[in-house]
Structure formats: structure tokens, C-alpha cells
Amino acid sequence: MSAISAKNLTKAYQRGGETLQVLDGVDLEVAAGEFLALTGPSGSGKSTILNFLGGLDRPDEGSVIVGGTDITRLKGASLADWRSRSVGFIFQAFNLIPVLTALENVELPLLLQPLGRRERREHARHALDIVGLADRIDHRPRQLSGGQEQRCAIARAIVTDPDVILADEPTGDLDVKSGRQVLEILKRLSGEHGKTIVMVTHDPEAAAFADREFRLESGRLAETSHP
Ligand code: ADP
Ligand code: MG
């Protein structure tokens, strides 16, 4: 069974009396533990797809089945509950909370779960260890480099041990070296930890870290051959 099975996704936006057809029947199957790159021109709908896969938005038509659940049928609290248990998000701009330490940032998603303070700390420390930030847990975001901030954001995304990780241009704001570190961590999360990863990127070098690459263009998705 696929970890992610999206079928016939369509989405249109109305703008100034005109209809913008962003997605026009997109199908996507991702196997468990697979690391998939989603590329395509700016404005082609990459983030739109990612938001559908994470239940942050829903398509006009089509189904999105993640881990056996059709999330287009979930609403309100049950959707929020599903999201907090099942997916981790990583964004281009890291989105860490400036007044919290690295450890406190990583602990945040666990506040939605029935865990004691000590367990939360343990899980957060473990996640920070996986991304190589064990020695930075008391630093605030502005005391971290960009690469360290993004690694902290990855720790926050994995702290609840979700099956699926969705990353939207995770290396977009990083220098080449920090970007590679982030990509190597993502590759390890799929290869060693069995996470299913969908990463949006416009960088061919970043896409080359993935197992498969799909390109979105004119509302349609096609697999691109990988060397
Ligand atoms: P990408 O991530 O590939 O750059 P997006 O998925 O963010 O593209 O957006 C796809 C298209 O849909 C763009 O043309 C964008 O302007 C448009 N769009 C996205 N969200 C909205 C919205 N809420 N209202 C109107 N248009 C939108
Ligand atoms: Mg985008």
C-alpha cells in the first residue's frame, strides 16, 4: 500500500474575474519510506499540492489518502488531530519561535499530546540529537546559523515521530554547504528511519538527493528520469 495516494487533484483560483486552473487532474503515489522531489516553475502549484498532502488545504476535486486515511473527508478537530500525529512540516523560512530555545521550539508539537514534561524533554532531545544539534539545545533561533535553524525545524517536524514529512523549499534560504547537510538529514530520515518525504524544490542539486523526481507543469505532474 502506498503511504500517500493522491488521485485526480484539481484546483482553480478565481482572480479578477478570471479562472486560474492550477491543478488539472494530478495523480501521485508515494511508497512508504520513499524520498520524493517535486519540482516545477514558480507558481505551478507545488506548494498547493504539498498543502493538500498535509491537510492544510483541500482540492476542489480528488482524494488524498495518507496512511490509509482519506484526509479530504476530515474536518475541524479530527483533521487537526490527524495532522498533529501524522505529518511534520518543514518550511523555507524555518518558522521557529524567536523567544523560545531550540529545545522549547522542538517540544511545541508535543504539547498537543498526552505526555509529561519529562517525556517531552526526552523526545525533543532525541530529535535534536538526530539532526546534530545536541550541543545547541539552549540556544535561541537568532543564536543559530541558518543551517542550524533549519535543522532545529527538522527536529520539530520529527519529534512526534510522524510517518510523513513535507518540506517546502527547505534549502531555499541556505548556503550550499548548509543545504547539503539538510538534504543529507532528509535522506537519512527516509533511508534509516523509514520516513516518507515529499520535498518541493526548484534546485536540481537538491532534487538529485531524492529517490524519484516529479515535475509539475501546466497543471500536470510527470516523473522525470533520474540518472
Ligand atoms: P508554487 O509553490 O509552485 O510556486 P503555489 O502552489 O504557491 O505555486 O501557487 C500556484 C498558483 O496558485 C500561483 O499562481 C498562485 O499565485 C496561485 N494561488 C495560490 N494560492 C492562492 C490563493 N489563495 N488565491 C489565489 N491564487 C492563489
Ligand atoms: Mg511554493
Strand content: 25-35%
Low-confidence stretches at least 5 residues in length (pLDDT < 50)? none
Main sheet makeup: 6 strands, mixed
The run of helices and strands is EEEHEEHEHHHEHEHEE
Mean pLDDT: 96
Taking strands numbered 1, 2, ... along the chain, how are they ordered across the largest sheet? 6-7-8-3-9-10
What quaternary form is this? single chain
Total count of strands: 10
Based on CA atoms alone, the radius of gyration comes out at 17 Å
Class inferred from helices and paired strands: alpha/beta
Distance between the termini: 26 Å
Helix content: 25-40%
Bound molecules: adenosine-5'-diphosphate, magnesium ion
Characterize the overall form: globular
Count of alpha and pi helical runs: 7
Write a concise synopsis of the structure shown.
The chain has helices at residues 46-53, 76-86, 102-107, 117-130, 146-158, 176-191, 204-207, and strands at 4-15, 18-30, 35-39, 61-66, 69-70, 87-91, 164-168, 196-200, 212-217, 220-224. It is of the alpha/beta class and 227 residues long.
Write a structural description:
The chain has 227 residues and is α/β, with parallel strands linked by helices. Helices cover 32% and strands 28% of the residues. It contains seven helices and ten strands. The two termini are 26 Å apart. Adenosine-5'-diphosphate (ADP) binds next to β1 and α1.
Helix-strand blueprint:
Layout (H helix, E strand, L loop, with lengths): L3 E12 L2 E13 L4 E5 L6 H8 L7 E6 L2 E2 L5 H11 E5 L10 H6 L9 H14 L15 H13 L5 E5 L7 H16 L4 E5 L3 H4 L4 E6 L2 E5 L3
Parallel strand pairs: 3-8, 3-9, 6-7, 7-8
Antiparallel strand pairs: 1-2, 1-4, 4-5, 9-10
Helix pairs in contact: 4-5, 5-6
